[in-house]
Design a protein that fits this description.
By secondary structure, the chain is mainly alpha-helical. It contains 25 helices and two strands.
């Protein structure tokens, strides 16, 4: 029986570690060079406002003064108490409510700016040239992380048997055919989260393959990289603490799969995996808990205070109606993962076969997705307010799209080949259309659509409110057409019969003001 059991668990081709070829590496380098050029060409000239700006005030304070608290004079310019900054009532000091790692992540670009400029200023106190330099430095920083994301996506695709050509299509589809492109340009946190999660998953895949193939030379390296990236995610955003039990359970499961080659007793398998990792898990959990509790205590006055309890609107942040989020993440016009990440639609056609072939690795992706899909649906602000697309799920969507790689496999069944060709052709056309839609959004100021929606929502007109729920690219395209004189902006057209010519011109001027170009090569000041 034991001999038969061992035979059934011999690693398959999908479990083996295959060294990267010279051609694969050369194509990967070429891909990164092309992406670097495109990202530089399409870099924004405007600053993404809101959360990251508040955090960078803390980074400036760290560089200039060696502390991470923010002056109260700054806090007063950022909305209600607790909205961006938390007041430590024991010390009277103010701190950004976001993960402490965000403050540290902005040290490199702002330190470069400090060396060049000689000093650092807050956004509201900067001259036009200083602001331009700040945006340029942050853009370069974003490009570095974007290249890291592209590299991980490329090599993850190769690990799933994709050819370099297919891997390149997958990378371009993820980066430019989805709402991810917006966050590659926006100087905010989502790009960090995605990069760290892809790093975690890449090491998990390599660890799985190394363990199951019996190789031990690089196993420990990827083991600690998995825990390292998990720590970065938790310190960047506390909601990622939900990843910890999932990651640890998967490591135990992987180790059990390896031992399963020689043992058939489940209790023995669990004991083996648990004993093997007990010390490492203890060091990891103790170190991470100490860092999180210290950061919370230092900033918020208690190790168990998350910083999100001071703003009235988020005091009970998990009291939202989950039905709204569960439905909205799938079907809402402005937050649907399928509308804003169309690769997912085509991934469904190969979902079953991909899951069957890569069960252990892809079940991890599915577990993480469903955990955060449900968790964020309970969040009172599941929409993310002024954000583009379903940003709370962005970090998992590229990996959830991995089954799309199987669309490009050679079909053994002759009858299914025409279907696969149609699907591949439709996928390429969909990505091109989606890239056009993303261009309509990205070429304007980051807040253009939000400001327009907020402006016209005040009209309290049912027709207008219905239109304002349209996908962002429709609204932005209509804004552009209005400015070019091709058609009147739909909400303004609805209002026109009931307003004076002077009021019409005022509304029209507002629309034109939202159409400032946010592409470097199109901006009027260049």
């Amino acid at each position: 029986m034991q001999e038969k059991h061992c035979t059934n668990n011999i690693p398959s081709d999908s479990d083996l570690i295959v060294p990267y070829t010279r051609v694969q590496i050369q194509i990967g380098i070429g891909l990164l060079l092309v992406l670097a050029f495109l990202l530089m060409l399409f870099r924004p000239v405007l600053l993404y406002l809101g959360d990251p700006v508040s955090v960078r005030y803390s980074t400036i304070q760290l560089i200039e003064e060696g502390t991470i608290n923010v002056n109260q004079s700054v806090v007063k310019k950022f909305g209600a108490r607790g909205q961006y900054f938390f007041e430590n009532e024991k010390t009277g000091l103010w701190y950004p409510k976001y993960g402490i790692l965000n403050t540290l992540l902005y040290v490199p670009p702002l330190l470069v700016e400090r060396v060049v400029e000689g000093s650092l200023e807050g956004v509201r106190d900067m001259s036009a040239s200083q602001l331009k330099n700040r945006v340029f430095v942050l853009n370069l920083y974003n490009i570095l992380f974007s290249l890291g994301i592209a590299a991980y996506l490329y090599f993850i695709a190769l690990n799933y048997g994709a050819s370099p050509k297919v891997a390149v299509i997958y990378v371009f589809g993820c980066l430019f055919g989805t709402f991810l492109w917006n966050y590659l340009r926006a100087q905010t946190f989502e790009i960090f989260q995605l990069c760290f999660f892809l790093g975690l998953y890449y090491s998990l895949v390599r660890y799985t393959r190394l363990v199951k193939s019996g190789e031990t030379r690089m196993t420990k390296t990827h083991f600690w990289l998995i825990l390292f990236f998990t720590s970065l995610l938790v310190l960047e955003k506390l909601a990622f603490v939900l990843l910890i039990p999932i990651v640890l359970a998967w490591i135990l499961w992987i180790d059990m799969q390896f031992k399963n080659l020689y043992e058939s007793n489940n209790i023995s398998l669990w004991k083996y995996a648990f004993r093997k990792n007990l010390l490492s898990f203890t060091v990891f959990l103790a170190g991470l808990m100490m860092l999180v509790f210290w950061a919370n205590w230092h900033r918020f006055g208690s190790p168990f205070n998350t910083g999100y309890a001071q703003w009235e609107q988020e005091k009970h942040f998990l009291t939202g109606n989950p039905v709204d989020g569960l439905y909205g993440f799938l079907f809402d016009k402005q937050k649907s993962i399928f509308l804003y990440f169309p690769l997912l639609i085509f991934a469904l056609f190969r979902f079953r076969s991909f899951l069957k072939k890569y069960t252990v690795e892809f079940v991890f992706v599915l577990t993480v997705f469903f955990t955060y899909y449900v968790f964020n649906s309970f969040f009172i602000n599941w929409r993310g307010n002024w954000c583009y697309g379903p940003r709370y799920l962005l970090f998992i969507l590229p990996l959830l799209s991995l089954p799309v790689l199987n669309l490009f496999e050679s079909e053994k069944n002759i009858k299914s080949r025409p279907v696969s060709r149609i699907l591949r052709g439709t996928l390429i056309l969909t990505l091109l259309m989606s890239a056009f839609c993303q261009t309509c959004v990205n070429m304007m100021a980051f807040e253009a659509t939000f400001s327009t929606i907020d402006y016209y929502a005040k009209a309290k007109n049912e027709q207008i409110n219905s239109y304002l729920k349209s996908p962002f690219w429709i609204i932005n395209l209509d804004l552009l057409r209005h400015k070019m004189g091709q058609k009147v902006f739909p909400p303004l057209r609805i209002l026109k019969p009931n307003i004076s010519d002077k009021s019409f011109q005022k509304h029209s001027a507002f629309i034109n003001s939202q159409c400032e170009s946010n592409f470097f090569f199109l901006h009027k000041s260049q």
